[in-house]
């Protein structure tokens, strides 16, 4: 995904507990119908999302909000469905798991 601009910034460590919880919440939601870990599907690969965003609270909050609201325009033309039943806390754990797939983390 060369055309996707990587956002510069330092990454903070992600607590192992948040990663584990996020992995479970994702497994019980519908995320894998549109996302794969390391390949594009309907949505971008989780590893590409991890490479794009620094691990910082502001990005975690922004991405968690996008999971809940759905949306398009950051990666291409496809739209992510909204997930109104996912709480903010659950969405933050999901995003923590996704960002933990960053290389050299
Ligand atoms: C209906 C298909 C679909 C489902 C289901 C889906 N996604 Fe997505 N997701 C997408 C698409 C398409 C994009 C790219 C949106 C864009 O270009 O702005 C995306 C983007 C993302 C992003 C990056 C957002 C950004 O602005 O960079 C994250 C994080 C994400 N999804 C997490 C999740 C999680 C967690 C779930 C499960 C709760 C989920 N997605 C379920 C299709 C989906």
UniProtKB/TrEMBL annotation:
<dbReference type="InterPro" id="IPR009056">
    <property type="entry name" value="Cyt_c-like_dom"/>
</dbReference>
<keyword id="KW-0349">Heme</keyword>
<feature type="domain" description="Cytochrome c">
    <location>
        <begin position="17"/>
        <end position="102"/>
    </location>
</feature>
<feature type="binding site" description="covalent">
    <location>
        <position position="35"/>
    </location>
    <ligand>
        <name>heme c</name>
    </ligand>
</feature>
<dbReference type="InterPro" id="IPR036909">
    <property type="entry name" value="Cyt_c-like_dom_sf"/>
</dbReference>
<keyword id="KW-0249">Electron transport</keyword>
<dbReference type="GO" id="GO:0009055">
    <property type="term" value="F:electron transfer activity"/>
</dbReference>
<dbReference type="GO" id="GO:0020037">
    <property type="term" value="F:heme binding"/>
</dbReference>
<dbReference type="GO" id="GO:0005506">
    <property type="term" value="F:iron ion binding"/>
</dbReference>
<feature type="binding site" description="covalent">
    <location>
        <position position="31"/>
    </location>
    <ligand>
        <name>heme c</name>
    </ligand>
</feature>
<feature type="binding site" description="covalent">
    <location>
        <position position="80"/>
    </location>
    <ligand>
        <name>heme c</name>
    </ligand>
</feature>
<protein>
    <submittedName>
        <fullName>Cytochrome C</fullName>
    </submittedName>
</protein>
<dbReference type="InterPro" id="IPR002324">
    <property type="entry name" value="Cyt_c_ID"/>
</dbReference>
<keyword id="KW-0813">Transport</keyword>
<dbReference type="Pfam" id="PF00034">
    <property type="entry name" value="Cytochrom_C"/>
</dbReference>
<keyword id="KW-0479">Metal-binding</keyword>
<keyword id="KW-0408">Iron</keyword>
């Amino acid at each position: 995904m060369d055309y996707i601009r990587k956002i510069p910034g330092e990454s903070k460590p992600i607590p192992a507990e948040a990663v584990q919880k996020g992995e479970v919440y994702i497994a019980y939601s519908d995320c894998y119908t549109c996302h794969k870990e390391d390949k594009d599907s309907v949505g971008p690969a989780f590893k590409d999302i991890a490479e794009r965003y620094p691990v910082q609270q502001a990005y975690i909050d922004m991405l968690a909000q996008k999971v809940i609201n759905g949306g398009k325009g950051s990666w291409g033309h496809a739209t992510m469905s909204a997930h109104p039943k996912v709480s903010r806390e659950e969405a933050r754990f999901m995003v923590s798991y996704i960002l933990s797939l960053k290389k050299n983390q």
